[in-house]
Amino acid sequence: MSEIERYSRQILFQQIGKTGQIKLLNSKVAIVGVGALGTVIANHLVRSGVGYIRLIDRDLVELSNLQRQTLFDEEDASLQLPKVIAAQKRLNKINSSVTIDAHIADINLDNAEELLTGMDCIVDGTDNFMTRFLINDVAVKYRVPWVHGAAVSSRGMFTSIIPGKTPCYRCLFPNVPTGTGETCDTVGVLSPLTDIIGSFQALEAIKILIGEKTTPNLEQIDIWDYSTLQMDISEGRNPNCPTCVNHQFDFLDRSSEQQIAYTTLCGRNTIQINPRNKRELDVRKLAENLKKSGSVSGNDYLLRFSPDVDTSIVVFKDARVLIHGTNDVVKAKLLYSKYIGN
């Protein structure tokens, strides 16, 4: 059986056909966030034969993820594997002909252009506004189409953003919302919802990759009461948009007030510290040094250090740190300085 016969049922769908399948095989997609939405998106795109998929995620697999993050299992959580590594291993078993490029990283102004350019499409599997504004800046600057999606509680939305043709994300959402808002960690989320939204996002990405028309709407759904809303955004471009009209890329600008190095992860009692200067830590050496100050566990990608019963510090090789047990940035800075260094 030839490789393309693997996709025979997809090729039989007239709008894709053999020509569309060949386009998919030669396409490159970046998925930002490999959680509830990202795992669904990656699963569909790999099975559909997208030739190259770049996975970008900052976090590790935890037991609470398994309710909705469909590429992971209990062993991944037990081993504290980074999500992109666990996903890569699973996806390679599903379709070994697809190149899975895994990046354990928090996408930010230091790496966003490097990680997201050269792609045919970017798909949003994130859970926060700041990252979406950053994706939008890169997408508009380099004219890369991207698919936005969001899901919380029983409600979700998605749309496709095509630079130069549709409103950009900042046209639709001019300002970063203030306050924490609802998140999966504060109000929960239903697994069928993330499956539905992620599946629609994957479909929109496929349409982009083969040159078919995407939705002109901001599509919204509530699966608990079976309600839907299609908001036509085709004429929604802001004539004064800082991003797509004035080419002002605030989220890529180091001097912009939008930039932050310390992030409170909503509802998780966790502070993320993301050093601006790139460096690679020897996590095994650091683990040896920390053993005298508390319990240490980990793997080749990260270590988890607990100086006391209330605090847990996860350190990644790129020096990014998650400090669990506090929402106090000052306390998080003190812990980072004490145990990791400046």
In short:
With 342 residues, this protein is of the alpha/beta class.
What does this structure look like?
The chain folds into 2 domains: 250 residues, Rossmann fold (3-Layer(aba) Sandwich); 78 residues, 2-Layer Sandwich (TATA-Binding Protein). With 342 residues, it is an alpha/beta fold. Helix 3 crosses helix 10. The chain is globular. The chain starts with 7 loop residues before the first helix and ends with a helix. The model has no long low-confidence stretch (mean pLDDT 91). Strand 11 and strand 12 form a beta hairpin. The protein contains 12 helices and 14 strands. The protein has an 8-stranded mixed β-sheet, with helices on both faces. 32% of the residues lie in helices and 22% in strands.
- The ordered H/E elements are HHEHEHHEHEHEEHHHEEEEHEEEEH
Task: Estimate what percentage of residues fall within beta strands.
Answer: 15-25%
Number of helices: 12
What is the CATH architecture term of the largest domain? 3-Layer(aba) Sandwich
Unreliable spans are none
- Spatially, the strands of the biggest sheet line up as 3-2-1-4-5-6-7-8
Q: Describe the oligomeric state of these chains in a short phrase.
A: single chain
Radius of gyration, rounded?
Answer: 20 Å
Count of DSSP strands: 14
Number of individual domains: 2
Secondary-structure content class: alpha/beta
Q: Helical content, roughly?
A: 25-40%
Instruction: Report the biggest beta sheet as strand number plus sense, adding barrel if it closes.
Output: 8 strands, mixed
What is the general shape? Answer: globular
CATH H-level name of the largest domain... which superfamily? NAD(P)-binding Rossmann-like Domain
